[in-house]
Amino acid sequence: MHIRGVVVDVPESKTVTTSYGESELLEVTVRPDRGAGEATTVTLWEDWTETAEYLEPGMELAVYDATEREYQGETQYTTGKETMVVVEPDFLVDVTDIRSWVQCPRLYYLNKLDGADVSEPLVKGTIVHEVFGDLLRGADLEAAVDRRVEESGLDLGLLGADAGSMRETVKQHASAIEGWLQQGRLTDADNWRSEQLLVSERYGLKGRADAVRRGAPVELKTGKNTRRDPRFHDKVQAGCYALLLGEQADEGDGSVTHSPDTGTLLYTKNAAVDDDEESGDLSPAKEFSISTGFLQFILRARNHLAAVEATGDVPTGYEADAKCEYCFEQDTCMAVSGRLDQESKAGQVGTPLPEDERAYFERFYRAIEEERRAVHREYAKLWEQSPNERADDDRALVDLEPTGRRQLDDGRWELRARGTGAVSKIRTGDVVLASDGDPIGGGAELARVERLGSADNDEIVVTTDEPVDLRRLDVYPSELSADRLLTSLHDALLLQPPEWKAPLFERRGPTFDRPDETFVDNNEAQNEAVRTAVGAEDFALVHGPPGTGKTYTLARIVAELLDRDQRVLVSAFTNRAVDNALEALEDEGITDIVRYGTESGVREDMQAYRLDQSGEPDDCAGELQDASVVAATTASCGSRALKTQAFDVAVVDEAGQLTEPGTLAAIARADRFVLVGDHQQLPPVVQAESSETQSALGSANGGQLRADLQESLFERLIETYPRAGVLLDRQYRMSQRIQAFASAEFYDGQLRPATAEVAGQSLADLDGVAVDSLPARLRDAVSFIDPGGTQVGNTNPEEAETVTDLVSTYLDAGVDPADIGVIAPFRAHVAEIRKKLTDGVTVDTVDRFQGSSKQVIVVSFVTTGALDGPIFEDYRRINVALTRAKKALVLVGDADSLSQDDRYRRMVEWAE
Ligand SMILES: Nc1ncnc2c1ncn2[C@@H]1O[C@H](COP(=O)(O)OP(=O)(O)OP(=O)(O)O)[C@@H](O)[C@H]1O
């Protein structure tokens, strides 16, 4: 019997005398159905009473395989021998986190804060793991080692390590693996598979097992262990995978008995130990048996961790029996607790940060953790939503039909399937979950999207480690971004000197020493922006409304900084924005650039600048270290490699779209910074939803946490220090008529066309366009059309029809398809319009249109009735939608609905 509910009451545990002697018990009251059901009692016995130390009302509790009994008319539950108790099952704890938690809860916390630096053991460990996977897939040892060491060129170079000796070391480790594999164990019956991604709905766990043999976990460790038994925390890790594998093997009775009862640890360094010098058990493989009691112990550790995360408490180290004197993180631990004034078993050193900085740290720490919870909720949707609901939510491509597969030279697999033409959030280059239709219970693999179906070729191609029947692709919720944000917060607050932080914490204003030079001679505001940026001793802010030459100004700034021998980091939230900035740098004649990013992330014409991370270590590292301009997304700025780099100035584009910690990722790498952006356009994307969907405990200030992330650092600084900002007030994009509304509503009437040509442009200026052939209402630069349709779900068929007719009218008049763009609020509506249109016309949501422009833009509002679509959530979306057109803008929507809101009423009046 299983029960799950919200905890209402947690009394003290008590001791009772039973026929077996004295026992401890804890009677917890829970309400099933997420708190809506009748209160009932769950009695936890013996070791499970430990739960009382961290369980709090409001948390969720799930109890599997409990005994059910009737007591005075009430159904009660008690734990039995095989019962598993889970606290906060929706919080998906990572297996490696449980491993460090068991070593020391504070180690877990510190790992979260400062991420992993490039270090020899880490790089070696990664390579050996990759080679292990290769060997399991049947690769040749020498070839696999050579290839994997080559691929780690950059990391090795940054360490100053030599490829030859790394190859030798890895070969020793790999021979241990191969030797073990060859001991007659690699038979078909072994049923091996490498790297398996496992997610548990039942236990709130996730992780990637190094390998699975006959359904049991095999973990690889690159250290040595000359004892007969595996290390305790290594067993814990393998035990976690046993729990996960048990759930996968289970056909639905929810019992822990399906978990494998053995695990194997492979200590590959044992093979390199000289047996003349060391005694003990030098065999690399150590098997151990996994009892139900051990799995229950693991789950209690997991529960403790999840509970601490739910309350937002910081671990002290006292939660487990950590021994600080042997810990290699002791110094870091004491320094962090000293600076943040945290309780720590190891003690504190140093002076605490000023109170406001500590408060800031805590506020954003919590906000980032709330983002992590939002990622966990995305995972939960993998099992809570049906395939069609996932597809409707744009989070999955379903009903794919497998068309073929082949093994690639490196042992990985290429899988192909025919798509249905549906659209989703999935893009080429993304890492997704490929499955046979059931990403949790069925066969699933992490896959990389190589090609997505298009109008003329609907074949989808992905690559994976192991083959799977390709019937469904799901967006893979990744915690990487939350991890990177925490690291940025740590790096900026704990590693930067007080002077650097002073203006950020409003202890003093930023200072400037503006050069008395002219940098741009035809645009006063741009010139002022370059002077301010070049003369900034702390930071400068360039506020650029649509089309005002933000990117051009950014490039001028970088050029002048380079002239002053400054090393510059160029960054932005998206790869697209980074590549746009690079294009502008090229126009300024700057080519000494290193673009840091993945092959699929970087635009085709910028590949030449891309840093090849594989190759001779010194060459790879030298290329990065010698570059005077390094360009990367803000997420990559927190990567291991870029964390080793220091810059004079960080220049960040589209800074209005970055959360505060997201901006810190780039600026923490530099002495000074320049933010370029527009806080009247799209705000940062925050995943955490409004308070009602947040965890019971986090919800009290959930809305505030979301608001903290939604205000960009750019916006906060420009409001605090208006004089550090320069408004670019002349725009080079829109005709006078088109820009009027945005200027009045969003820029205080300050926006002006840069030249008379810009102001007076019209469709007649385009070659081959016969304006006379357009109907009268489309001859004006701005028009409004009410098609009189009705919204059905997330689309409006009549409106879609009107939009396609409009596009045809422009095409018939001679407008090039590439010059036309259609903006719609919902992906379903976008898909509906795309189906009807010829290729070449861009149809997309507002968010994807930010930063681009077209000669003709049609905006379709879809809504009839209440104004509750995403486009109406924030006026800034409308600002973006209305400022993409250069020569003609057509608004299509229901005038009555739009007029419910004053601002949209003014918009309709302006357009009509
Ligand atoms: N000082 C200038 N003199 C001449 N042309 C300019 C100047 N500044 C910008 N431009 C031109 O104006 C156009 C818009 O510039 P840019 O792409 O830099 O704008 P943006 O503000 O980055 O646009 P968005 O709002 O889309 O981000 C470009 O074609 C650019 O070459």
UniProtKB/TrEMBL annotation:
It catalyses: ATP + H2O = ADP + phosphate + H(+). Residues 37-212 form the DNA replication factor Dna2 N-terminal domain. Gene3D superfamilies: 3.90.320.10, Nucleic acid-binding proteins, P-loop containing nucleotide triphosphate hydrolases. Its EC number is 3.6.4.12. GO terms for molecular function: 4 iron, 4 sulfur cluster binding; 5'-3' DNA helicase activity; ATP binding; DNA binding; hydrolase activity; metal ion binding; nuclease activity. It comes from the Archaea. InterPro entries: Coronavir_polyprotein_1ab (IPR050534), DNA2/NAM7-like_C (IPR041679), DNA2/NAM7_AAA_11 (IPR041677), DNA_replication_fac_Dna2_N (IPR014808), NA-bd_OB-fold (IPR012340), P-loop_NTPase (IPR027417), PDDEXK-like_dom_sf (IPR011604), SF1_C_Upf1 (IPR047187). The keyword DNA repair applies. The keyword Ribonucleoprotein does not apply. Keywords: 4Fe-4S, ATP-binding, DNA damage, DNA repair, DNA replication, DNA-binding, Helicase, Hydrolase, Iron, Iron-sulfur, Metal-binding, Multifunctional enzyme, Nuclease, Nucleotide-binding. It is an enzyme of class 3 (hydrolase). Residues 523-613, 624-688 form the DNA2/NAM7 helicase helicase domain. It holds the Pfam family Dna2. Residues 709-895 form the DNA2/NAM7 helicase-like C-terminal domain. Its cofactor is [4Fe-4S] cluster. One of its GO terms (biological process) is DNA repair. Belongs to the DNA2/NAM7 helicase family. This is DNA helicase. It comes from Halovenus aranensis.
